[in-house]
Amino acid sequence: MAAPNSSRTTDWWRDAVIYQVYPRSFADGDGDGTGDLAGVRARLSHLAELGVDALWFTPWYASPMVDGGYDVADYRAIDPAFGTLDEAEKLIAEAAELGLRVIVDIVPNHVSDQHAWFRAALAAGPGSPERERFHFRPGRGEHGELPPNDWPSQFSGNTWTRVPDGEWYLHLFTPEQPDLNWSHPDVRREHEDVLRFWFERGVAGVRIDSAALLTKDPELRDFVEGVDPHPYIDQDEIHDVYRAWRAIADEYGAVFVGEVWLPDAERFARYLRPDELHTAFNFNFLVCPWDAQRLRATIDDTLAEHAPVQAPATWVLCNHDVTRTVTRYGREDTSFEFAKKRFGTPADLELGTRRARAAALLTLALPGSVYLYQGEELGLPEADIPLDRIEDPMHFRSGGIDPGRDGCRVPLPWEADAPSYGFGTAAGTQTWLPQPADWARHAVDRQSADPTSMLALYRTALELRRAEAGFGDGPLTWLPAPDGVLAFSRENGLICVVNLSAEAVDLPSHERVLLSSGPLDARGLLPRDTAVWLRV
Fold first, then answer.
1. CB distance 498 to 485 below 8 Å
2. Peptide bond preceding 64: is omega within 30 degrees of 0, i.e. cis?
């Protein structure tokens, strides 16, 4: 094999594979039904053997868990359900010993309504300095009975809640997540201190939740569809925040990845200028349907967006908010939109699994970095959660129409024949979300013994990607291919071919097959919904 790519020891983030850990559902170390840091520490060997470069943890901070930890009450404390700060520090150190960097989540748009600042603001009353850290306003109408403006929610429902003294406060998400006022110096100082707190403890980077929402129109003017600038998305002042943050990160050699949902490519690229964020999530690829023409256009657009600022692209098939890849790719509509999520949508899981395997090779062959959500390496499908066990606020705020995001957050199966499939929950105790009855077939131990499993495919693909110098960051060249087929070359004689057409197709001339997502047919052709890596 060729020499490993040197950028993995310098600008490692430009081509890293980063594994997303959702702590509640990864592994349970104390048997109480909820995943925790002890469980993660006990299973770090799985992640090292998988071959990823870094771990991104969704919020592990003290939180009432109204929105899965994205309602943070204290950034300097670990939620007791997950463990302690000492355990977090040990986890960071133990991961480093295995060659795994740690990325933590920051949620700067809002805090929990149990945060000390917000509780002080409620107690202090109208006009107080404590309320200036948030967006408190008098209401409209004769008696202030109407919200201060008409902004739409990022979830379903209202964006303003009235408190007993008559004022209203802004929350783009749930009422339990009051928005911070980013024009206030206390807010900026506090978050800069939080960054330093975690960088001092050895984290390698920070993922920024809802990164384009922080700064708001100072007048809180009404939202008008199609009129720019938007009153709370992508305000120009937000870049001052990230320039200050970048200076801090550079002191520690740390990196940022932003959750930036923007349709405008030029404005998206502004977040990736050399003095701002290092990378941002690529949601266009995540929501793209299983269609060769659409995927190629999305890949081209993504690379073009990043080129002017020389930032690496990121690629992701699934995360803790969206439908599992195996299920989505098995549906008639293989795209993803939050507004279209409904109960009972049928899926062909055999077809979805075949496509998910091919998509894994496609994604890992593209230039840039890759984010891999926990359980994707096991080929987990979306789970159906009984109505009385649903926890996600998206379901409740939609009036019960949206099934919510719990189906992709179910505790992982580790051991096929163990209680809770080896998740670690004590006998007689329920896991925080119910595991499907057929979870055993997806268990790590069973897949580890099967060379044809999804886990085996990911382990082999990640080993090759780390060893072959042509993968990761660098140029991509499209090759001639039949309709419905994606074919491109990377450096050092590597080719990826993905067949999304209805028929098996010939492979380009090559020296050998490095890896395929499924067997070639008896004629040596690449079957439909199959991908292959070639050496020429």
1. yes
2. no
Task: Show which residues are catalytic.
Answer: 209, 251
* DSSP code, position 30: S
Q: Are 392 and 433 in contact (CB under 8 A)?
A: no
Whole-number Å distance between alpha carbons of 198 and 192: 10
Question: Among 494, 497, 503, 496, which Cα is nearest to 535's?
Answer: 494
Category of 64 on φ-ψ map: left (φ > 0), alpha (ψ -120 to 50) or beta: alpha
Q: What is the largest CA-CA distance in the chain?
A: 78
3-state secondary structure of 141: coil
Residues in a beta bridge with 274: none
Which has the closest alpha carbon to 325: 503, 458, 138? 458
Asked if 95 contacts 40 with a C-beta cutoff of 8 angstroms, the reply is no
CA 160 vs. chain centroid, Å, equals: 27
The CA distance from 211 to 108, in Å, is: 8
Using one digit for the tens of pLDDT, what is the confidence trace for 299-351? Answer: 999 999 999 999 999 999 999 999 999 999 999 999 999 888 999 999 999 99
Q: Coil, strand, or helix at residue 487?
A: strand
Place of tokens 């071959």: 51
DSSP letter assigned to residue 471: S
Alpha-carbon distance 375 to 19, whole Å?
10
Q: Are the C-beta atoms of 124 and 163 separated by less than 8 Å? A: no
β-bridge mates for residue 146, sequence order: 140
- CA 505, 367, 306 angle in degrees (round to 5)? 125
pTM over 0.85, yes/no: yes
CA distance 178 to 198: 23
